[in-house]
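Input for the complex:
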Amino acid sequence: MNVFTHFRGIIDAELASLSVAGSLPAEIDTKNVAVEPPRDASHGDIATNAALVLSKQAKKKPRDIAALLAPALEALDVVDTVEIAGPGFINLRLSDSFWQNQVQGILSAGKAFGNSRMGGGERVNVEYVSANPTGPMHVGHVRGAVFGDALSNLLQKAGYDVTKEYLINDAGSQIDVLARSAYLRYCEAHGRDIGTIPEGLYPGNYLVPVGQALKEKYGDQWLDADEDVWLATVRDEATDAMMDMIRDDLKLLGVEQSVFFSEKQLHASGKIDEVVEQLRARGHIYEGVLEPPKGQKDEDWEPREQTLFRATNFGDDVDRPLKKSNGDYTYFGADIAYHYDKYQRGFKSMIDVWGADHGGYVKRMQSAVKGLAEDGELDVKLCQLVRLLRDGVPVKMSKRSGNFVTLREVVEEVGRDVTRFIMLTRKNDAPLDFDFAKVLDQSKDNPVFYVQYAHARVCSVLNKAKEAFSGLDTSDTSLAGADMALVNHPAEIAMIKQCAAWPRMVESAAEAHEPHRIAFFLYDLASEFHTFWNKGNDEPSLRFIIEGKEDLTKARLALIRSVAFVIASGLEVLGVKPLEEMR
RNA sequence: GGUCCCGUAGCUCAGUCGGAUAGAGCACCAGAUUCCUAAUCUGGGGGCCAGUGGUUCAAAUCCACUCGGGAUCACCA
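Predicted:
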């Protein structure tokens, strides 16, 4: 249960009955009322600004409203004290027994603790990665992949019905380049000397096996043939091969999307025409000439009449072209149709995860969604660059020479779990440093290690306890029956409170579409746990296993088992496996 | 020139729908060590939240402008 929404319900009910009693106006708007943990723990466990928010509506002083509300809250069994503080905050302090009782709930929920119904089963589409199928995944793709995946998991946990999706950009001119590059390798497979790969084609060795496969499947029929003979087939074959490779790479990272949507199919199905006509019918499209961009001299710029979408009607800066000079649709044109397709498939809520270099594209896409469907919602999350380092020294990469670090290399060197966790240790729109040495460091400076270590320590204590008390049942159901009243040290209660904050964390992170908050929360929780552990060094009576006191030991085991469940629950969102022992 | 993102302790960064005395890690300073895993621990100093103005009972948070850093700007995706 989410402690704060629980009390929110109680406070709302009390406000309503004050309305009925005439102490507050009949119609009150409580949507800005917050029931949350106070920033300063000395203010208690739960704080509400209700009196402040309602002051103007009720035409009463905040502290007077607080005084109306306080008695009913004071009357609750689980509330120890109620105080009216500062300008009119109401601070509640809950009884130890209330917190102690939370442990049982956590143990019975297990890793499902924190699951929320906030989303109400609403369908959400999260599109991420969508790397061009022209080569293997490289580090630049990793962050978006991990972010999108964790965000999807997070939304799922918060009660949304999430579809993880990938758009295959298999229609653009880069696919022709891919096909020509693969064709060269096909010639090479037939023993031709291809020399150095010409500028503008993909030089990577990963196309060698594709050339081989083409040779085996199609023989020598295309040698010395015109491009229009083989291009279409090689395009398809090469794209398929690249997508297989990309799916394998993603699998290494633990990313498995359920829908792979082909841009080419979008063109072929006539969907784009359909959507453009629909926009035209709504008056969002016209033929016109754009102003040249200011401040930047572009020699090639020439005024030209083209098909434009009135993005400016929806907050964009200029209207955007839907067709290229050769009559083909622009990527934007196709993308509008793609988003409309998602909408028609039942996703009113869509999230796109892009690299930060696509930031200039956000407004026009959101404009298009608004232009097509008033109730459609598109949130675009931009992921900033990852700086790869090795012992503090930047790793040099050059895309031109094909010398980039691949996703596979990263995952094979440091592991999936470490890669995923580190990618979420920064806000998505802030740049992130990824140091091969530091992420494997086994010290508290490394958040992955620190969190994993906390989980492993709990597992280790549970094992030790079975040795200390022969026949002790440490199963979750047994621990759930422990006498939690024995766990009453302030540090223990604080530990429970932090675990109990987990459901609220899930909801707020999901609402903000910010999975990194989970990583920070886990770090804080682990930190609290380690600190508690260390207290046992100074004060042996605070250790988890107390010889001769089986009931107390069991209660403490129940507590730390809860901590482990919350950590496991959080790691699951991040797509990281909790460790039962280190190394 | 337009647009978007960023600017918080010496460094790297958190900061929830606007909420009470702005937090953490590193670094620095001072202590601790027979201990369930020392793969260290405890405590301390350190801030004009880039700046100015505005909205509000209340602003790091919202709005406007300025400064500084990055990204991007029809016919690529």
